[in-house]
Amino acid sequence: MSQKKFHVAVVGATGAVGQQMIETLQKRSFPIGEISLLSSSRSAGKEIEFNGEKVIVQEARPESFEGVDIALFSAGGSISKKLAPEAVKRGAIVVDNTSAFRMDENVPLVVPEVNESDLHGHNGIIANPNCSTIQMVAALEPIREAFGLKKVVVSTYQAVSGAGAAAIEELHTQTEAILNNEAPKAEILPVKGAEKHYQIAFNAIPQIDVFTENGFTYEEMKMINETKKIMHMPELKVSATCVRLPIAVGHSESVYIEIDQEGVTAEQIQKLLSNAPGIVLQDNPSEQIYPMPADCVGKNDVFVGRIRKDLDEDKGFHMWVVSDNLLKGAAWNSVQIAESLIRLGIVK
Amino acid sequence: MSQKKFHVAVVGATGAVGQQMIETLQKRSFPIGEISLLSSSRSAGKEIEFNGEKVIVQEARPESFEGVDIALFSAGGSISKKLAPEAVKRGAIVVDNTSAFRMDENVPLVVPEVNESDLHGHNGIIANPNCSTIQMVAALEPIREAFGLKKVVVSTYQAVSGAGAAAIEELHTQTEAILNNEAPKAEILPVKGAEKHYQIAFNAIPQIDVFTENGFTYEEMKMINETKKIMHMPELKVSATCVRLPIAVGHSESVYIEIDQEGVTAEQIQKLLSNAPGIVLQDNPSEQIYPMPADCVGKNDVFVGRIRKDLDEDKGFHMWVVSDNLLKGAAWNSVQIAESLIRLGIVK
């Protein structure tokens, strides 16, 4: 890491992901000379402690980015669309955690373990992929590299924190109501702006984000399209079913894959993943060792277990992939991109 | 239905499934002349109301089955192994809800909507399939019949009630503890007799039943083997990943299938399932209509939605299948088998 210190801005500093970004920057001892914590006008004025000093949250405006080197955005797509170009105009590099620019062909979509070198092609903005995509491609890339990859069928088990801090609050309030034999109120999930809201406590909602015309949700299409872009595999067959569950933090994924090479064993894939960057193998059925969301909270890694060969398809394998959706799925991957930008000399 | 009335025994009458069997027999106005409610010695002596009269639960013994026409067993595999043959010896037909006899080639394994005629081949015992298998094959059979079926990849989202009433209690106790910032106690899930127990509240446990040597759990192998047996398709490619979730009642399944026929549309499958026995189609994304476990509780049907064609495989389709695991997954399917036995004249 360079000795130089940088002026970093966090946009959406009071949100669920923004708070994790601020914590991660401190934990990583990120080389910060100056920090700007930015938010909507509604949250401006709040005080947040950063490296032992109180910082007052300011309303994010175009001029907030004067002198900023790196701006981490996580305040919703419309804010990114409006302010990211303003930050770039003022010389900042933007790492954007919304879906605003992810599929823009001029914007690299990066998971450092997978496609760090795509950062060189940036035009001021770098997109952080969707949380459920990041943990999956981190687990798939070592397999693709060693054995090729043809097909992915994923079913997700996603935590409510992916829908923000208000969704965590809704899960808790509904859970308390049901335990007290009261009717739970649903006002946020599955999608805040949608017409209908459903109980998430003790339930499973097979809708994350709104539906597209082909019957898949946007969340599912994000997983499909982003996986192809990050892995540089437009021809990869990917399908996804995304489900919201009564879990506060930690996304899990049941992933079925078909690889290119014949005769590969589950043990080979286990060995591969036990040495892969950013991956922790937790896979010992006889000791009941496998990843679970309750164990992954607060950790940066992607945890993989339940790796087994399909009983019919020689090229088919199943696995269970778990990660903290606020960290590797969002805040940590964004900070990790910022670290890569410095290490690669892209931000100087 | 015959005018004759039958002597019915329920073994495991005080358990989560036994209670639903007793309720279902009453709701269906099952032609009962005499009811015997049987249990372990531990639960014997309890009083249960049946059709307005109080019935005292008796300890299940071989002689309990004298004069019994139909015995519904749901008291664990070891009880079934010991007492089902005793019931048969005394002239009863046994409908067994445990895994004790399911893969016995002399025992029909029946979901009435799929393979009712297998009942004719019984030798005194009929097995009720595993809860997660029943709802899936009910949804798959109409598709197989119309378009053929080659491959099934299922990921389950299973409720704790599949592990009995004590597991529901554990979910509630743990949930209360966590909401009160206390450490949750885990003593039952994932498997009561296993060495390690894990928190289920606000978590996902990718283990149901114990592990087999191939890395799949018994629950997963049940889904694989039972599906092939019920559908009479030993060549069908089936794989399963079974996951326990913090939901009291209602199993959900993300099912990916590949059919035989080319050029089939999602609309064709929707139309097929909207007319299929035991199936309720809930599939209208633009109105946010899809099945959810919280909505299926107390209903006998299997609910199917999110039907969509794979974006890469012409023969590939995805769907979301939900049912009350204590009813269609257990009690209702058992009572339904008993009704079939009478209608087909097998029990006279």
Automatic annotation (TrEMBL), chains A, B:
It catalyses: L-aspartate 4-semialdehyde + phosphate + NADP(+) = 4-phospho-L-aspartate + NADPH + H(+). Phosphate binds at R102. Signal peptide: none annotated. NADP(+) binds at T14, G15, A16, V17, R42, S43, S161, G162, N325. Pathway: Amino-acid biosynthesis; L-methionine biosynthesis via de novo pathway; L-homoserine from L-aspartate: step 2/3; Amino-acid biosynthesis; L-threonine biosynthesis; L-threonine from L-aspartate: step 2/5; Amino-acid biosynthesis; L-lysine biosynthesis via DAP pathway; (S)-tetrahydrodipicolinate from L-aspartate: step 2/4. Its EC number is 1.2.1.11. This is Aspartate-semialdehyde dehydrogenase. The gene is asd.
